[in-house]
């Protein structure tokens, strides 16, 4: 009927817009409403557009306010219009990249290898390598579990006996004593060996292959401050990782 969403029409497949075009239209609508104060569509049209993007699985409609500002500023700059100064843009981008530890699916500010005409250098963005950060704790967890098994054997399997108590006593003992003790012991051992650990990953600014860099101390030996020089394993290019700006420089 006449209330069908225009994006869902099966009679005009040639005129149906792509997800990228819909996302750009969504951001332009936000920009015109909040910055230009001239809505480019009605509230109903905006809701229909947002609903269609949700059905398409787009993440643009669930961006945080900072992510939306960043996307709007990027689109406006590409169209020849500035919404903020270069300094504000750089601060906002760094904030989004630095907050990736709290929100790991935030990829708005992450870009691949690119050239800067101003600095005449090649850059790419890097993010936290969550998998390797998790694996850093694995040795300490195994050590903590071995200590628990050793104490269990030393006490004549008293820990096993307490774990197998009828519910809810066994459950309470497991979650209030054994698991917290194992967790804190593993954390203590990991922090003792890897203090202020941070592992960043990103595409090589020369060949695009994934590279990693470790920041922090290992048994009291510092890795080199906020910047590390890393050689790409694929193309052997010399890269500089910066943990503060989250940039890889060729």
UniProtKB/TrEMBL annotation:
InterPro entries: PGRL1 (IPR039987). Keywords: Membrane, Transmembrane, Transmembrane helix. The keyword ATP-binding does not apply. One of its GO terms (cellular component) is chloroplast thylakoid membrane. It comes from Selaginella moellendorffii. GO terms for molecular function: oxidoreductase activity, acting on iron-sulfur proteins as donors. The chain crosses the membrane at residues 130-151, 171-194. GO terms for biological process: photosynthetic electron transport in photosystem I. It comes from the Eukaryota. This is PGR5-like protein 1A, chloroplastic.
């Amino acid at each position: 009927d006449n209330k069908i969403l225009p994006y869902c029409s099966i009679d005009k497949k040639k005129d149906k817009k792509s997800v990228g075009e819909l996302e750009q239209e969504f951001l332009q609508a936000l920009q015109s409403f909040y910055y230009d104060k001239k809505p480019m569509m009605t509230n109903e049209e905006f809701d229909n557009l947002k609903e269609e993007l949700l059905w398409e699985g787009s993440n643009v409609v669930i961006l945080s306010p900072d992510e939306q500002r960043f996307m709007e500023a990027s689109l406006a700059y590409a169209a020849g219009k500035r919404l903020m100064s270069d300094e504000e843009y750089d601060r906002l981008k760094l904030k989004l990249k630095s907050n990736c530890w709290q929100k790991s699916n935030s990829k708005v500010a992450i870009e691949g290898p690119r050239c800067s005409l101003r600095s005449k250098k090649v850059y790419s963005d890097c993010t936290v390598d969550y998998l390797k950060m998790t694996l850093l704790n694995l040795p300490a967890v195994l050590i903590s579990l071995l200590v628990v098994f050793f104490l269990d054997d030393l006490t004549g399997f008293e820990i096993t006996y307490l774990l197998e108590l009828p519910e809810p006593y066994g459950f309470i003992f497991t979650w209030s004593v054994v698991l917290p003790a194992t967790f804190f012991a593993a954390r203590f051992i990991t922090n003792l060996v890897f203090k202020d650990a941070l592992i960043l990953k990103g595409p090589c600014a020369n060949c695009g292959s994934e590279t990693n860099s470790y920041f922090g101390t290992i048994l009291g030996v510092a890795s080199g401050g906020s910047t590390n020089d890393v050689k790409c394993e694929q193309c052997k290019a010399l890269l500089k990782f910066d943990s503060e700006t989250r940039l890889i420089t060729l």
